TrEMBL record:
The chain crosses the membrane at residues 52-71. Keywords: Membrane, Transmembrane, Transmembrane helix. It comes from the Bacteria. Residues 58-173, 257-580 form the AsmA domain. This is AsmA family protein. The lineage of its organism: Bacteria, Pseudomonadati, Pseudomonadota, Alphaproteobacteria, Caulobacterales. GO terms for biological process: regulation of protein targeting to membrane. Pfam families: AsmA.
Amino acid sequence: MPNDLKNRLNWHGFQQHALVPAGARAAQWRDWIKANDPVYRSFRRPGRTEKIVGGVALLLVAAVVIFLLLFDWNMLRGPIGRWASAKYERDIALQGDLDVKLFSWTPSVVVRDLKVGGPVWAKEKDTADVDRIEASVRLRKLLAGQIEMPLLSFTRPEVVLIATKDGKNSWTFGKPKPDTGEGMKLPVIQQLIITGGHIVLDEQKRGLTLDASVNARETANDGDAGFVLDGKGSLNRSPLTLRIEGGPFINIRRNRPYHFSANLSGARSRLVADGSITRPFDLGQFQSTLSLQGQDLNDLYMLTGITLPNTPPYRLSGALKRDDSTWTFNDFSGRVGASDLSGDVKVEAKGRLRVDAQLASRNLDINDLTAILGAKTQTNAAGTNTTTVSSGAPGKLLPDATLQVDRLRSMDGTLTYRAATVKANDLDIRAVNLGAKLEAGVLDLDPVSFTFNRGELNGTAKINATRDMPYSAIDFRLAGYPLESIIPVTNGSPPITGRALGRVKLEGSGNSIHRFAAGSKGSMSLVVPHGEMRAAFAELLGINASAGLLKLLSGDQSKSDIRCAVADFNVSNGVARAQTFVIDTDVVLAKGSGSINLGDETLNLKIDGESKKPRLLRLWTPILLRGPLTKPSIGVDTASLVGQGGLTAILGAVVAPVAALFAFVDPGLAKDADCGALIQHAG
């Protein structure tokens, strides 16, 4: 037969088979089973052997059922306790009756007098002692691979939770698992009953203790149904209170949020949350409104483990949300000291803690910002700062608050902060822009930017906190800052005007700003390329009695040009020694010497002036600046007289240092400013 004819016949057969209805094919298959399958025939017409096997099977099933019905489950208490004790390396015992009901659509178990001992390192205290536990499961859900508990009941549970400073805890059974940051996921519980519960917590790393009662009721005549945890204790030896409330479980559903409220007070702080668990029984998912207030945001480290800066008293409120290991505190707003603060914070708790924050203030009180550096502020009822004092000894300028390096090592993160406007202040700061990055114990501050009414200060700082004594480096540049913002107005006009340029570049070890400065090395410089000074003060730089004193006493407001002013200091072991100190005006060229001690914050400077014009009467003696930085004294050295020297000698001594300083402060300044003319003239 030709191949093409065979193919056509096969295709025709296939089409005929495909057209047979599925029901007809099933009937054909059933008929074949009836006619040919020996197993089917044995069930339809059992023989003697089949009857014997079936009878034995039924007897075995009946025996198992009767055995389970009559079995004394208490016989398993010992084996279960020994197995659990060996597996979890702690004493576990079922000391009371054990009742099991298997033959029900909701199988249940009742355990009486359960004891769970502490781990090897805390054997003196049992982790849990419970008078009675009753639990039931829905069989239909269990066969479908789900756990649904119509009832979970605890009577007088006593729970002791201990966490040591080295990270061990008594509630972890078996080998510790990696920290995923996920919340506890519970089975569906339709009724939760806790009667006379008691929890004791001892968290030794933070000095946290809590003694709390726990109760859960599904119905109550007084309407006080639901879950309640109410406890008191201490945190770092300060009082602590905690109360958590939730509704009854009787009406709970997987797709219906479960409402709760929490109130925590301690460590000079108070946190109030009102929200819901978005997917009941999944404690890793919830959202709430969070309000917090206290004396210092830094105190919250004891409650949350998050490192926060020192601040004045605060009051903030926003939306708190948890998504397993990710926590967010978004759209929060409030006040810190006398300043407003708003922003968003994101915390990743999976593995190493990470915090990313974007913060902003519409109107900043600059005194509140100094609190981060260790200063202390006092805010009055009107919401304004009345005083700011250093955290060091009285009369000192640099704060001496100790940097907590262990907290910097405990987390990573980033921070941005911007203040759109700044309240009126002595330094005339108008805006602030800060950025920070913390990684593996190294804190990078970049940028650190302050915008003044005129001029700005920009720089960076790095703090290496990987060692017990942190090592820091700072580099700040001042551009165009007006001298009249520093020196107060007298007789209606500023005694000195001009724009200041400067740079501070220091590094060294120290766990506070004061200690860092006291041992630092580097350089500090200040340049005024041009400006004006009251002629009387310019004359007095040379202590010229005939001109300077007469002008000063007569109230003369005439001006004298500042051709150049340069102060350059080399810093070693916290002592800044003048390398170049020159003030050049139309009438006097003054040269300074001496030092500034950053450790004890004192000045010891001397200014020698030489007149550029002949004077009939003059008292030629140095001007002395001495005493504390916060309140220096100005006087003259009447014990020694200085003879006149030539301008050439003074200029020759300052030309080379000044030329080097210009490149350090601002390249191109020597070419464009009056200081460049001074150098060219001296050469």
